[in-house]
């Protein structure tokens, strides 16, 4: 029984607008990708991590993991080139897994403050027999379905969506390895183009007709997308230094 994480860090961080790939952006003294890897290590349920990074930055990212280990731990790390979309990057990570891996957690470096107990809970739920497990939080905003905006920028409302059953999903998402491999094989033709690629791995599993299960998410697993998210993550770290 071997659980491994595929940690996606091949995005450029366009919306963050800094001059380094998002995984290398500093958050209170550590790059996001190192923080995310340390969180995975602290969950103490993984035998290794495969990190997908921009192809042009392989050596820069590798230098952040001296000796091929998560800093301060003995958890091995393999850094591989990702693809042009998140889906393609996860597929590249899966292709690098050893044969003995039977459970895979797919995690975003952009969600680098996901607490170790959340990570361990996802892994444990897969181990207990749920083959596709996603952490999620209830949606708190009122949600409306909109049409195309007119010339003045105003968009017509088509409906107000009943929100009680809506959930915003996070990572790590945990899977039986064979199921995730099958889902990526079946959806592989979508991966190259951002317009067709799926935004999470559970979407590919759903497309196979397989059941996906939700477990409670955690606000600290926020996705750092904008400067405001980065500032919020800094505040979270000040409030809870043990997340560091
Ligand atoms: N081709 C890509 C695109 C994204 N990701 C990863 O998927 C996660 C979620 O992506 P997002 O937060 O949208 O990151 P970016 O694509 O870097 O952001 P942006 O769209 O602003 O460029 C991130 O950990 C990111 O590194 C990836 O591995 N490969
Ligand atoms: C996988 C994910 O983090 C779940 O919320 C999210 O879907 C990534 O999507 P993005 O479009 O790459 O931000």
From TrEMBL:
GO-annotated molecular function: 2-C-methyl-D-erythritol 4-phosphate cytidylyltransferase activity
Pfam families associated with the record: IspD
Signal peptide: none
Enzyme Commission number(s): 2.7.7.60
Keywords for this protein: Isoprene biosynthesis, Nucleotidyltransferase, Transferase
Superkingdom of origin organism: Bacteria
Site feature Transition state stabilizer, where: 15, 22
Pathway given in the UniProt record: Isoprenoid biosynthesis; isopentenyl diphosphate biosynthesis via DXP pathway; isopentenyl diphosphate from 1-deoxy-D-xylulose 5-phosphate: step 2/6
Site-annotated residues for Positions MEP for the nucleophilic attack: 163, 223
Reactions the enzyme catalyzes: 2-C-methyl-D-erythritol 4-phosphate + CTP + H(+) = 4-CDP-2-C-methyl-D-erythritol + diphosphate
Protein family: Belongs to the IspD/TarI cytidylyltransferase family. IspD subfamily.
Function: Catalyzes the formation of 4-diphosphocytidyl-2-C-methyl-D-erythritol from CTP and 2-C-methyl-D-erythritol 4-phosphate (MEP).
Stored HAMAP family: IspD (MF_00108)
Name this protein carries in UniProt: 2-C-methyl-D-erythritol 4-phosphate cytidylyltransferase
Protein species of origin: Georgenia deserti
């Amino acid at each position: 029984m071997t659980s491994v994480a595929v940690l996606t860090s091949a995005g450029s961080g366009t919306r963050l607008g800094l001059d380094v790939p998002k995984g290398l952006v500093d958050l209170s003294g550590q790059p996001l990708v190192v923080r995310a890897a340390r969180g995975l290590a602290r969950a103490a349920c993984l035998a290794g991590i495969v990190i997908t990074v921009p192809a042009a930055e392989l050596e820069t990212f590798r230098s952040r993991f001296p000796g091929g280990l998560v800093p301060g731990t003995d958890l091995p790390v393999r850094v591989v080139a990702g693809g042009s979309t998140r889906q393609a990057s996860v597929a590249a990570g899966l292709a690098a897994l050893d044969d003995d891996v039977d459970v895979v957690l797919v995690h975003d470096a952009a969600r680098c403050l996901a607490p170790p107990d959340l990570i361990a809970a996802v892994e444990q739920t897969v181990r207990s027999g749920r083959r596709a497990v996603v952490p999620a939080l209830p949606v708190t905003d009122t949600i409306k379905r909109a049409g195309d905006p007119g010339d003045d920028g105003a968009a017509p409302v088509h409906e107000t969506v009943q929100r009680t059953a809506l959930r915003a999903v996070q990572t790590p998402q945990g899977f039986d390895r064979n199921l995730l491999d099958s889902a990526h094989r079946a959806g592989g033709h979508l991966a190259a183009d951002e317009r067709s690629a799926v935004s999470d791995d559970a979407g590919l599993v759903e497309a196979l007709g397989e059941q996906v299960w939700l477990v409670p998410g955690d606000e600290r697993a926020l996705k750092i997308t904008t400067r405001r998210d980065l500032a919020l993550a800094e505040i979270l770290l000040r409030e809870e230094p043990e997340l560091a």
